[in-house]
Each structure stands twice: as C-alpha cells, then as structure tokens.
Design a protein that fits this description.
- The structure is a single chain.
- The protein is mostly helical and 144 residues long.
- The radius of gyration is 18 Å and the shape is globular.
- The chain has a two-stranded antiparallel ribbon with strand order 1-2.
- It has one domain: Orthogonal Bundle (Arc Repressor Mutant, subunit A), CATH 1.10.10.10.
- It has six helices and two strands; from the N terminus they run H-H-H-H-E-E-H-H.
- Helix 2 crosses helix 5.
Length: 144
C-alpha cells in the first residue's frame, strides 16, 4: 500500500520517492535541478546558479556534484570556467526528474518533508551501523 502524506492526499509516484531516497538528498539539489531544467540549453556556472538561487556557492557546488554523480547534469569546461547544464544520462532518470519537478511545483512542502524524512533515516541507519561496527571491531581486537 502506498504511503500517504500527512494531509491524507495521495502520495508521490514511486519513482519520485526513489529519487528522493537515493539520488536527491537536499533542497539545494532540487532548486539547482529546477533552474537547470527551466533553461536546459543553457550552461550555468556555480556562481551564476548561486546568484539565481540566493544560495552560497559552496552549497551550489555540493548540489552540482551530487546531481552530476546522480546522472542529472552535464559538466563542461569552457575557457571562462566550468559550466553545468541539465542533461539526464537516461530516459528513466529524465522522466523521474521531470515528475519530481512537477510534484515539487505542485506540492513543495511534501517534497521537502520527504527529503527531511529520508535524511533522518540515513542518519539513523549510519548511527546504527557505527554502533554495530563498534562491537565487531571490539570483538576482532579481542581475538587479535
């Protein structure tokens, strides 16, 4: 049974939730993706994106790095500096990204809520792994 939002409205499509769980982890990533998608033919510098979004360049750079590793953007070096543009690496990523942006326009708070929920899940999972690993390391040291 699909998850439902706090307000009781139907939840997001599965591919959008999967993107938010595995590839899009921050508000800045969505905003950078939104700007790049809005003018897909244009190449942007991180400084230009930061100015457009009123976000510090280091956050934009981190968002671009994540979007690049997630297969959403194309980076190109130009004589005036690196440029980034919207260029999904597969039709599936493109379709999911466009559904995400559509949902973000329609229900931005729901998207931000899920980003937060998934971030908390990642922190908890990481803490549990670290806790479990502490016992494994201790056990191995005792044998050593």
């Amino acid at each position: 049974m699909p998850e439902s939002s706090v307000s009781g409205e139907p939840d997001l499509p599965e591919d959008v939730r999967l993107l938010l769980r595995t590839r899009i982890e921050t508000y800045e990533q969505i905003e950078v993706l939104r700007v790049l998608h809005s003018d897909a033919k244009r190449g942007w510098s991180c400084a230009e994106l930061g100015e457009q979004l009123h976000v510090a360049v280091q956050f934009v750079t981190a968002a671009v790095d994540a979007l690049d590793s997630g297969g959403f953007v194309l980076r190109s070096a130009r004589e005036t500096g690196e440029r980034v543009s919207y260029s999904p690496t597969s039709p599936e990523i493109k379709a999911s990204a466009e559904r995400l942006l559509q949902e973000y326009r329609a229900r931005p708070l729901r998207i931000i809520q899920l980003i937060s929920t998934y971030a908390i899940e990642r922190v908890r999972t990481g803490a549990l792994r670290a806790f479990a690993d502490a016992f494994v390391l201790k056990k191995d040291l005792d044998r050593g």
